[in-house]
Amino acid sequence: MTARTLQQVDALSTLEALIGNTPLLRLQRVTAHLPPNIGVYAKAEWTNPGGSVKDRAALNIIRTAEREGKLQRGMTLVDSTSGNTGIAYAMLGALRGIHVKLFVPANASPERLAILRAYGAELVLTDPLEGSDGAIRAVRELVAREPDRYFYADQYNNPANWQAHYHSTALEIWEQTHGAITHFIAGLGTTGTFVGTSRRLKALKPSVQVIAVQPDSPFHGLEGLKHMATAIQPSIYDPQLADRQLFIGTDETYSMARRLAREEGLLVGISAAAAVVAALQVAEELAQREESGLIVLIFPDSAYKYLSHAPWR
């Protein structure tokens, strides 16, 4: 066996090689009332090795920073997170020998905190009443005091976030639907998934309708999603990009999360359930107009990191 052969095998045998190429699942029972010419499909992002769609952004943020010399040996990667991106940072940091320090709201689920600690991340717990915005303010204060010590990954403002989805998620959806996609739906958190995927899909097929999902109130229980009008708005967010904004309630989302588990066998996270609520609204409107459609939405993660919280407790 040659060294070249080993290199070829190694390229396919790393943890990073498992990120992306996630399956597309058709919803069946919760869509049984729809005509057969309307399909609702979900991108199962929990199959990434870190368990969420955020693996894509975290890997691209790290690779881009290393390539540009912003993340160098001995530096600490620091960022604010509600959980999933932090888990991806921590996983990749363990793999690459990068120390990771994360600012996390103290009310993050015990499961997520346990995973972060298991990967060896250093955690700073911030005021739960301030949510993700409080964590953002806290990490900015730290970096302002010691800018040379840290690489601030800044997922809410780093273009490498949305670019990850422009170059991977969108192309996978395009190939998996053979270009037949008519609607794309994703929740708004950092907004990277929605912005990057929508931009590429629009470039490939301008007629694709891209629909953004956010909570219907500043005070909500939709983990991972932002009410954009009252939150610190990410600079990577393009408010002109969405063809439509859908505002989803907490109660209907929790009900859908339980339905997906019990009727589809899909134990998904809260933001995934919110996307399904939105997708069914769009699908039912198509049915009323007697139109066809191939709707794709993002399932950012599974429910395993949330089982100690509503709606599961």
Automatic annotation (TrEMBL):
The UniProt keyword set, sorted, is: Pyridoxal phosphate
Per the entry, which co-factors are needed? pyridoxal 5'-phosphate
Record carries keyword Ligase: no
What CDD domains does UniProt report for this protein, alphabetically? CBS_like (cd01561)
Q: Which GO terms describe its biological process?
A: cysteine biosynthetic process from serine
In Pfam terms, one family for this protein is PALP
Has UniProt tagged this entry with the keyword Ribosomal protein?
A: no
Q: Which GO terms describe its molecular function?
A: transferase activity, transferring alkyl or aryl (other than methyl) groups
Q: Tell me the PROSITE patterns matching this sequence.
A: CYS_SYNTHASE (PS00901)
Sorted alphabetically, which InterPro entries does this protein's record hold? Cys_Synth/Cystath_Beta-Synth (IPR050214), P-phosphate_BS (IPR001216), TrpB-like_PALP (IPR001926), TrpB-like_PALP_sf (IPR036052)
Lineage, top-rank taxon, reads: Bacteria
Q: Which SUPFAM superfamilies match?
A: Tryptophan synthase beta subunit-like PLP-dependent enzymes
Q: Tell me where in this chain the Tryptophan synthase beta chain-like PALP domain is found.
A: 17-300
In the record, the note on similarity to other proteins reads: Belongs to the cysteine synthase/cystathionine beta-synthase family.
Protein name according to UniProt:
Cysteine synthase
Q: Which organism is it from?
A: Candidatus Thermofonsia Clade 1 bacterium
